[in-house]
User: Fold this.
Amino acid sequence: MTPMTEHKAKNPNRAAVYKLDEMDLQEVRPGFSRTGLRAQHCITTVNWFDPGYKSTGRHSHPFDQLSYVLTGVLRFWVDDEVFDIVAPSMLYIPADAQHGAEPLGHERVLNVDVFAPVREDYLPLCAHQEFVEYEPAGPAPWDA
Assistant:
């Protein structure tokens, strides 16, 4: 058994496809809804911003964030900088940076954020996925 096969041997989860535009969403505020998906070591939020949604301000967290804009245009404020991100693009937001976002234009914006490690506060967004945490049978291939 190769290290990669050995690593996968104890993973009880199966491959799955999630249609982002067909997933049940939780409304955060009017004009901003989301859901979540996770893996063993990372978590994503799938965010939909309606045209005209206005940001409620900036926030920070101790996680690096990769923010993918897959449709539309999303304006981000990160510390003292402003970025107008046009799909398909990605913005890296360092841990502890003050940031916020709101859509520009008349198109609904699909934004997927990736966080590592897993954010415990976002686990309820992933309950629909029925992901099973597991202990690998051996070291991950990248640790070998």
Notes: DSSP finds one helix and nine strands in the chain. The first strand starts at residue 26 and ends at 29.
